[in-house]
Amino acid sequence: METPQYIKSLLMPNGKKPAGRRVWSIDLETVWLPFFTATNTMGETNIPSEALGAPLRLAYNPDGSVKFSKTGRPVTKVAKELSDNIRLVRENFTASLQAYANGVIAENPEGYKADQTGAHRAPLPVPRGKGGDMPKPKWATPDRQAHLIKLFLRSQGFCVFGHKPCPYPEHHYELFIESLIKDWVAEDRARRQAEWEAERKALHSLGERRHPLRGQFSAIAKDAFYADQPEYYLEGIGISGLTFRPFAKVRMASSFMRLHIDLGDSLKGMSKNAKRKALRHGKLTETAQKLIRQAVRHYLDH
Question: What integer pLDDT is reported at residue 168 of this predicted model?
């Protein structure tokens, strides 16, 4: 028996690897739709145009809500008119394969039996754990699932950017949502890490007020600073409009309190240039500085 040409063509490698939605492991967009469009053209089938134009449908629960899989993705199905014809092709294809196998058995039973005896039985898979309902993934929030439904309704299960035909496999709905879900998982992981860091800091915090390291004092540096800090700061010198005598305006250290100290006759005997420097630049004589220190000490003591 000579092997038919269609059987040989089935066993030849094909470099094309479709990445879209598959029905019976065959790409829907690049194989089934062109095939049934051609059969409609030749009058072999009568599939409605809406089934060929939008072959994918959302699956719904009995209450009318969109059905989601255990992995959080929307469940889609092929239009009934299209799936019925695909099932018919599958059954006929299966029958042709069985007919070929029966023909080989009838013509060469010894060779078939020898190959069948030499074949090794595959080991049974080892069961892992108990079955049951898979928990809902953490990324599958209602907003994200609604976004997946919106993408499906806009793309009809094909290119999410509307390319027809789409030259980019990653634009296909099923591949696109996988990359989108990966981004959501990474985003949730980063958010949980940030929340854990904040919680850890809150658990180990002593409730103390924290400052940046730069510009702040330690306990020893603070004592040294206040020990070397002057008791007052000279803000200016002027002539009183009431007594027509010189006075000094000083601000107490670490305070908003200001003192107006009468300098008396401490500026007498000074040259005109020295008086000008004293009034403009605060260059006081030792006598004036002594009066200021005495007034500040009197204020602090009382």
Answer: 83
